[in-house]
Amino acid sequence: MWRNSSFLTHSKQAIWQEGSLCAQHCLNNLLQGEYFSPVELSSIAHQLDEEERMRMAEGGVTSEDYRTFLQQPSGNMDDSGFFSIQVISNALKVWGLELILFNSPEYQRLRIDPINERSFICNYKEHWFTVRKLGKQWFNLNSLLTGPELISDTYLALFLAQLQQEGYSIFVVKGDLPDCEADQLLQMIRVQQMQRPKLIGEELAQLKEQRVQKTDLERVLEANDGSATLDEDEEDLQRALALSRQEIDMEDEEADLRRAIQLSMQGSSRSISQDTPHTSDTHLTSEELRKRREAYFEKQQQQQQQQQGPPGQLSQPCERPTTSSGALGSDPGDAMSEEDMLQAAVTMSLETVRNNFKSEGKK
Fold first, then answer.
1. N or C: which end of the chain has fewer CB within 10 A?
2. What is the DSSP track for 102-117?
3. Which long-range contacts link 135-138 to residues 24+ away (Cβ below 8 Å)?
4. Helix 64-71 to helix 38-57 angle, to the nearest 10 degrees?
5. 142 classed as catalytic
């Protein structure tokens, strides 16, 4: 909420530009203003080095300890931008502020609740940062974070204890801090933090990872677009092949049906022409059969009248006349009816078709 607010100063450590100037950021975050520069802190460090040299010279400039001291690098600053606790302490004396070690026996005997203090300075190896109360709330003003971190009153003691377990040295800042705009505004309002800030390196790594994921996603989408086009073309080809196979199957079925009908017609014509005798006695038309039946019944009636004779004359049995045609001289029930002849013709045609199919299959 306050990350982009101008009333709360939160100096970020630009390691790639200024080196590890965390001591400078620590002091400026504590005082809430750009009060110290690297040049001013370096001047304090040189002053401390000179004071130490003068104390060592009191033992004699020709002594072994003095020559060894001159050969050693400064313990108050180095080329990376690190400054010692002595430099920070001397810088705060300008503002009437004093540093007391938090876990020292003298301070612990005072039994002061941390929430009743105003600020702390924390140090681990070469890193410094400030924890300060602004208004009625506590904030972690670590320059390695992307923004100030809100610390509740109930969590403050636990937070300091966790730092001690991690090896940090904690100093209580005693004295009146200079007035600042952030402290005045936060006396009237309270802020809420929806999302905790991240480490600067973690945020940069996350942004880099997001860019890499975005690039990979774009590549995947491009590849999927190409494969989707290929899949559509392949599906169209498969559909065309399936339709072609269906048309070929239909054509084959129609050709088989036409061939069967043709064979059936050929077989029927051959059976009628080859198997049926061309004689008037065995193959008669319906008109000829009707005329012959009429003639037969007329002849039978005449014979019955002749056998009866004149009235009073006894009738004599007579034999059934015979003719040269067995069909006419036989019993009427023996004569072939039209239905029998048609049934015989149909049966003969079907038998011929079956024989033709069998012969075709053998071929």
1. C
2. TTSHHHHHH---GGGS
3. 135/182, 135/183, 135/185, 135/186, 135/187, 135/188, 135/189, 135/190, 136/186, 136/187, 136/190, 137/186, 137/190, 137/191
4. 160
5. yes
Considering 10, 22, 25, 356, which one is annotated as catalytic? Answer: 22
Residue 293 CA to residue 284 CA, distance in Å, equals 12
CA 344 to chain centre: 77
Q: How many residues does the chain have?
A: 363
Over the stretch 138-193, which tens digit does the pLDDT of each residue have?
Answer: 999 999 999 999 999 999 999 999 999 999 999 999 999 999 999 999 999 999 99
Active-site residue among 29, 123, 140, 142?
142
Catalytic-role residue among 46, 90, 127, 180 = 127
Residue 102 pLDDT: 96
What order of strands is seen across the sheet that includes strand 119-124?
A: 98-101, 169-174, 119-124, 127-134, 137-141, 149-151
**Residue indicated by tokens 């269906």:** 246
Closest CA to 27 of 164, 118, 143: 143
Task: Identify the residue whose tokens are 């400054």.
Answer: 83
pTM: 0.54
